[in-house]
Amino acid sequence: LAQGFADDLLTTLCLATDAPIAIAPAMNRLMWANPATQANIATLRSRGILVFGPGEGDQACGETGPGRMLEPLQIAELAMAALSPGPLLEGARVLITAGPTRERIDPVRFISNRSSGKMGFAVARAARAAGAEVTLISGPVALDTPPGVRRIDVESAEQMHRAVQDALAGTDIFIAAAAVADYRSPAPAAQKIKKTDTSLELKLERAPDILASVAADARRPRLVVGFAAETERVAEHARAKLVDKGLDMIVANEVGEKLAFDTDDNALLVLWEGGSQEIARGPKQRIARELVGLIAEHYGRRGQARG
Ligand code: C5P
Questions:
Q1: Mutation test of ligand 1: which of 175, 209, 230 has the most ligand atoms closer than 8 Å to its C-beta?
Q2: CB of 160 within 8 A of CB of 138?
Q3: Model's pTM, two decimal places?
């Protein structure tokens, strides 16, 4: 590579490409330390070729020392980091809701749901990694705040609504990943409700629809993205929500006993006016990165459309 030979397929390909090149050397410790090798490595580095490793440890020849190939997973991670398209959302202000809400019934009881907040937190992490300034408004979850993300903790739908309203001004992208309660007790009991021999009737009223209110707000962000957890006819129900709530994009997933909630895996169907894209099943972190890529693409397009 350093001499520019092209006498096999690999070296020919390396000479004939303008793609980035990374190498992961693997050799005996003395070969690696040899000045000829080191000079060649310096030449390659000076031409912008990335050098992953080598590591140190047991070698195939039986010796121990520097020259060991990095583990394949390490190489894959370094390659992904080196080839990632850079800060797609640099400078964008992103507001995200995540997790469940809790609606009090009395001082010791509440109504909630199975949302773990993992998807919303993964999206916050990915948006931050893409260069965005991220505010995450979270219901009660057992998750660490992603590095560099501003987090506001809330409990009820009402508190989440207020926190979103307070943070909305100047937001470029709003992503509603929270599983917000649809109903709440109009007047939570001041004391613990005593059990009796008869049945108990709870009267519930609608909680505010945070997402719909943001989409209708005078301070509407350039891109408003909702989530739709559905147990059946996913695409149809999600598209109806896209229209009814006045969204730019909706991210649908199928939920059920073994799907989506409180798991580390997810599969998504992303819909917008005139288009859709599936994101294949996989870890929420990877899916979140792909989703943020799509969001960034649409955000960029909307920016251009407005000049
Ligand atoms: O109508 P549905 O609850 O299925 O819509 C889901 C989407 O709406 C999610 O993005 C969720 O975060 C948002 N939502 C909300 N406030 C509510 C109910 C849902 O922001 N009260």
A1: 209
A2: no
A3: 0.76
